[in-house]
Write a structure and sequence with these properties.
The chain is of the alpha/beta class and 283 residues long. The chain is built from 8 helices and 14 strands. Strand 4 and strand 5 form a beta hairpin.
């Protein structure tokens, strides 16, 4: 079905749960006013990114009042949002929720926690252990959180599990300079989202945050990418913004007919070769 998605490119405050809740709710109201049927927020929208020892203090259970409020708001618009989740055994996860119709429909726990450069997530957070596509009223979807998308197997698994839309929640800081003297991380992400969409015949909704934390700048540039790899809508750099984009189901159909990579993908060959490689490594 055709639908409208909103990418809420916000500037969360580090460790300020109450203020970020107000910011998220305000963005949801704006998305509803814009006739959006799905609103996507960045990674760790509830909390900010460089949390370190704050993690246990701002982590939420799935029955927390903040999550219950989102469940109520999801009666008006579907919501994808990032937060720190605490489990019953007191592990902490960089998680993303998908809520719709007053219910939590899916939860993804970030699998790949970066520990290079300025990143140190694995010191404070536990790793997720699976990638699963899930059914929505807009078709089958999959969620990735930032670093997850840089591992080719992750979006591939979701696509092979039937996802035709990939939602990526991100807190990507500005890093490096590209050959044309633009921000390196911006150029890299734009290549990644476009290439992923094109090779998997899937839409990509990429929502990145903005603002500063500990002197590090988050660059924004959230974007909606068509299954052809072309840009449907893109947010501005470095400032808060909201992208509203109309999603045409016919475009997905046309692209999968014109360029049927997913139709021709041979999962049996892939599995056989991976088992061979795994067996060789075990020896």
């Amino acid at each position: 079905m055709d639908f409208t998605v909103a990418l809420a490119q916000i500037k969360p405050k580090l460790g300020c749960l109450a203020e970020n809740c107000i910011l998220i709710e305000s963005s949801i109201e704006r998305a509803i006013a814009g006739k959006a049927e799905l609103v996507v927020f960045p990674e760790l929208a509830f909390t900010g990114y460089f949390l370190r020892d704050l993690v246990p203090d701002i982590a939420l259970r799935l029955d927390a009042p903040e999550i219950m409020r989102l469940r109520e708001l999801s009666r008006h618009v579907a919501i994808a949002v990032g937060f720190v989740e605490v489990s019953d055994d007191y592990r902490f996860f960089n998680s993303a929720l998908y809520l719709d119709g007053g219910e939590i429909r899916h939860i993804h726990r970030k699998v790949y926690l970066p520990t290079y450069g300025l990143f140190d997530e694995q010191r404070y957070l536990a790793r997720g252990e699976q990638f699963r596509a899930f059914d929505t009223r807009f078709g089958r979807m999959g969620i990735l959180i930032c670093e997850d998308m840089w591992h080719l197997s992750a979006p591939y698994i979701l696509a092979m599990d039937g996802a035709t839309t990939l939602i990526c929640l991100s807190s990507s800081p500005g890093r490096g300079i590209s050959e044309d003297e633009n921000l390196g991380s911006t150029a890299a992400w734009q290549k990644l989202t476009s290439t992923t969409a094109m090779f998997l015949n899937s839409r990509v909704f990429y929502c990145n945050r903005v603002g500063y934390e500990d002197g590090v700048n988050f660059w924004g540039g959230s974007e909606v990418i068509a299954p052809s790899g072309s840009v449907v809508g893109r947010a501005q750099l470095f400032d808060e913004d909201m992208v509203l984009a109309r999603i045409d189901e016919g475009e997905l159909r046309r692209e999968r007919i014109f360029s049927p990579m997913m139709r021709d993908e041979n999962l049996s060959v892939t599995m056989n070769e991976l088992r061979r490689i795994e067996k060789g490594r075990a020896c």
